[in-house]
Inverse folding.
C-alpha cells in the first residue's frame, strides 16, 4: 500500500488485486441501502404478508414464484457485475483507495488499440466524496498509462473531468471507435496535457 500526502488522513492508494473485484462490485452496485432493500427485503416481506394473510393457495404460489424470480434476478445481476469487474481487472489497470482496509474508491483504465487509453470506471463511495479522492485517482492514472487518454463521462461528471483538463474533441479528430460513439450523441473528452 502506498500512502499519499495528497490524500485525506487514513486513506491509502494501491493497485487493485484480483481479491478486490468482489469488494468493488459490492460497494459499486450496492452502495445504497435502498438497493439492497428493494432487491431482497421488500419482495420477501410482500411474500410473507400474503403467505400469512391470504388463504388463497394460488396467490401464495404466484407470490412465491415472484419472490423466487426476483431473488434469482438479483443473484444473476450480482454475478454478471462481478464477472464484468473481474474481466476488467484482468485486462486493465485498476487503482483503489482504501480507508480502514476497505475500498472507498477505484479507477479502471483500459488500453485500446495500443495507441490510447480510456477511463472506463471511476467511482468513489458516497460518504467519501468531495474529499478529492476521485481527482487523486484520475491524476494517478494520468501519470501511469498510455496517452492520449479518453473518457466518456456521465453528464453529471462532465465538469469534474473538464476541471482535470479533459476537453471535448471534434469528431473528425477522434479515433474511429470514439467517432462512432460521438455520432450517437455521446460526449468524448480527451486529456490535454500542459506539455
Amino acid at each position: 500500500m502506498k500512502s499519499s500526502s495528497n490524500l485525506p488522513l487514513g486513506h491509502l492508494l494501491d493497485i487493485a488485486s484480483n481479491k478486490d473485484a468482489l469488494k468493488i462490485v459490492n460497494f459499486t452496485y450496492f452502495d445504497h441501502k435502498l438497493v439492497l432493500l428493494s432487491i431482497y427485503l421488500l419482495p420477501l416481506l410482500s411474500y410473507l404478508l400474503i403467505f400469512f394473510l391470504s388463504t388463497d393457495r394460488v396467490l401464495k404460489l404466484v407470490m412465491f414464484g415472484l419472490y423466487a424470480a426476483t431473488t434469482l434476478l438479483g443473484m444473476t445481476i450480482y454475478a454478471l457485475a462481478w464477472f464484468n469487474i473481474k474481466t476488467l481487472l484482468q485486462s486493465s489497470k485498476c487503482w483503489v483507495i482504501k480507508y480502514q482496509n476497505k475500498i472507498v474508491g477505484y479507477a479502471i483504465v483500459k488500453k485500446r488499440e495500443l495507441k490510447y487509453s480510456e477511463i472506463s470506471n471511476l467511482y468513489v463511495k458516497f460518504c467519501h466524496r468531495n474529499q478529492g479522492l476521485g481527482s487523486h485517482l484520475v491524476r494517478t492514472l494520468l501519470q501511469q498509462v498510455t496517452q492520449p487518454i479518453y473518457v466518456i463521462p456521465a453528464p453529471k461528471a462532465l465538469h469534474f473531468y473538464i476541471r482535470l483538463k479533459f476537453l471535448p474533441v471534434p469528431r473528425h479528430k477522434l479515433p474511429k471507435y470514439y467517432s462512432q460513439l460521438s455520432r450517437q450523441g455521446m460526449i468524448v473528452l480527451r486529456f490535454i496535457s500542459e506539455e
